[in-house]
């Protein structure tokens, strides 16, 4: 049921690839809650996904943009403002990619050119999006900017390799720009650390299924699904969370604060 939490709000949602992605589900929820927004993704990602179908369902348009390019971001904001008819109340950064993970390189054998690509796509693009938004003065007061992170930014998960470093950088950028944007425009900037989620990106990580099941047994509420994460993002876009900023918010069924679960103790007691 729609509560119109975002009625009259305008924004941009990045990274919707297919119906499994958090950004995709966020777009559907935002539309349901009365928001108007533009969808965007990198041109290469658009060829892989079905974002145009999502745009039709949400009664909006898609503007291709490479989030690592300042020129593309500026063009995205200019065209989005023209289409929507005003400045933005929310931005979702749902962008992440590691060539090292895709090609199976271990943390001790990273290709450093690929590392730089990982950082640029997965974290520095977040800074670039906010830098251009600030320079263009395109955010409304009390707006909300969200990025998607993961607990590997704070703890060691060997399979996450250089993406763990990228997520740590993403969270640092959220704090740095959260302070800056909060002082200048009352705009809040936060990240969400989501449970392991069966998205296209998530399932591409080696050993994902085993870890997904492990996290599910560790979490007293179980793994949070992508749709529930979308609900949380909508809440963060709404006026109900006006004074939450510069935070990394765990949305993981309690996994991040559980030392050991009874289910796992039972599993290992006879070893």
From TrEMBL:
BP-aspect Gene Ontology terms: fatty acid biosynthetic process
Domain of life: Bacteria
This protein's record includes keyword Aminoacyl-tRNA synthetase: no
Active-site residues, as the UniProt record annotates them: 150 (proton acceptor), 160 (proton acceptor)
EC number assigned by the record: 1.3.1.9
Recorded catalytic activity of this chain's protein: a 2,3-saturated acyl-[ACP] + NAD(+) = a (2E)-enoyl-[ACP] + NADH + H(+)
One matching Pfam family: adh_short_C2
GO MF: enoyl-[acyl-carrier-protein] reductase (NADH) activity
Pathway(s) annotated for this protein in UniProt: Lipid metabolism; fatty acid biosynthesis
Alphabetical keyword list: Fatty acid biosynthesis, Fatty acid metabolism, Lipid biosynthesis, Lipid metabolism, NAD, Oxidoreductase
Keyword NAD found: yes
Positions of NAD(+) binding: 15, 21-22, 95, 167
Stated family: Belongs to the short-chain dehydrogenases/reductases (SDR) family. FabI subfamily.
Protein name as it appears in the record: Enoyl-[acyl-carrier-protein] reductase [NADH]
